[in-house]
Recover the amino acids of this structure.
């Protein structure tokens, strides 16, 4: 298996770099590099730039608006975007719901929802986790009861979702709901699209350790949802859920993000000093940097092998769980080393310093304010998308048959 890029793929890399140099606003890349909070308008701006170029939904088929890239070209694009400190593509509509609709949605759903994802008419969030149903996702209790009245075929939804990322910006949410309480857990779940502006939907913020409003609780009280918003078959939503999670877990691994973060860490270690010498020359710190770089190179190779298998017609299985485990551990270690490298400047941060317009003291280099924030925020990586412990169980079942 040849893991080197072909001449054509290297040419594509050059095309991506030229596009980023010309179209990525410096203001946005600087916010990402320095760890400042991206506003909704920032994310929408980058979304629109990519959509105009036809590169937003880069893993969708061409017939639905994708660019027709190979798996390798998609890897190159995401890698170069991370190195250029571009905002990440908000994944819920493009990277998660889109593939589910393409595979399991009916034609009317594809024709209606997919263009709205691309042009930004809808901002989607994910309604999976619940109190008591996080890693054990099949234990969801949010109910959807079907009925027919003068207004048509519909579901009435009651329950609660939690850890709903960027739900405060969303007008739509895709949810796992319980439609049959008598069936086995996985067999009584359906995949439903819910309008967040419907009567009975309430969003409450959760403020995370880094002081940011990133996640939310969402409550449903007798929320009416048209039956046409059911994706796939009733009580067969677990199939959609597993398919979506494969995309989510691979995305969480974040190889490109780790490469960019490691380069930034090396820059910090070269400028910060210990006993009058660059921190990069400290044997203990240099050993930890070397270890994480070796782990990252190994993960990049594994990622390329998975890509090669997909390009050959394969489907990632346990590999997505492997990448999720190692990818999150590596990202956590890099953020931990960056915070350690900042010394006293890596102390708990000033939240205001992460927002536009702050002119007060930052206590060190501009990226120092983000060191603690990134460290705390990245603690969640090994939990969401299915905790790493759950991923190890999946690997054991799929490979060892345990």
């Amino acid at each position: 298996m040849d893991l080197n890029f072909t001449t054509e793929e290297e040419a594509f890399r050059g095309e991506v770099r030229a596009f980023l140099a010309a179209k990525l606003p410096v203001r946005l890349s600087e916010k990402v590099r320095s760890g400042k909070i991206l506003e909704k308008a920032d994310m929408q701006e980058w979304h629109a730039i990519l959509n105009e170029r036809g590169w937003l939904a880069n893993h969708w088929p061409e017939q639905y608006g994708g660019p027709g890239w190979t798996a390798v070209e998609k890897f190159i694009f995401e890698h170069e975007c991370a190195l250029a400190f571009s905002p990440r593509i908000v994944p819920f509509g493009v990277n998660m719901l889109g593939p589910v609709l393409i595979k399991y949605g009916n034609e009317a759903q594809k024709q209606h929802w997919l263009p709205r994802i691309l042009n930004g008419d809808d901002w989607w969030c994910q309604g999976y986790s619940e109190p008591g149903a996080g890693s054990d996702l099949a234990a969801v209790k949010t109910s959807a009861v079907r009925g027919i009245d003068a207004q048509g075929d519909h579901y009435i939804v009651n329950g609660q979702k939690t850890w709903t990322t960027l739900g405060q910006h969303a007008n739509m949410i895709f949810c796992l709901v319980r439609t049959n309480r008598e069936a086995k857990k996985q067999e009584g779940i359906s995949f439903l699209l819910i309008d967040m502006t419907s009567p009975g939907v309430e969003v409450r913020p959760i403020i995370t350790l880094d002081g940011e409003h990133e996640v939310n609780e969402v409550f449903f009280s007798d929320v009416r949802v048209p039956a046409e918003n059911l994706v796939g078959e009733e009580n067969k939503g677990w199939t959609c859920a597993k398919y979506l999670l494969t995309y989510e877990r691979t995305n969480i691994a974040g190889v490109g993000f780790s490469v960019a973060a490691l380069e930034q860490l090396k820059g910090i270690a070269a400028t910060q000093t210990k006993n009058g010498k660059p921190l990069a020359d400290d044997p203990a710190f240099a050993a930890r940097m070397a270890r994480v770089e070796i782990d990252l190179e190994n993960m990049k190779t594994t990622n390329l092998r998975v890509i090669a298998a997909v390009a050959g017609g394969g489907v990632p299985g346990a590999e997505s769980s492997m990448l999720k485990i190692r990818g999150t551990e590596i990202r956590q270690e890099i953020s931990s080393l960056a915070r350690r490298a900042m010394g006293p400047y890596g102390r708990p941060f000033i939240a205001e310093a992460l927002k536009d317009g702050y002119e007060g003291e930052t206590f060190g280099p501009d990226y120092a304010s983000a060191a603690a924030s990134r460290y705390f925020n990245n603690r969640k990586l090994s939990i969401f998308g299915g905790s790493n412990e759950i991923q190890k169980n999946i690997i054991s079942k799929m490979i060892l048959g345990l």
The longest strand covers residues 213-226. Residues 205 and 216 are 4 Å apart (CA to CA). The two ends are 30 Å apart (CA to CA).
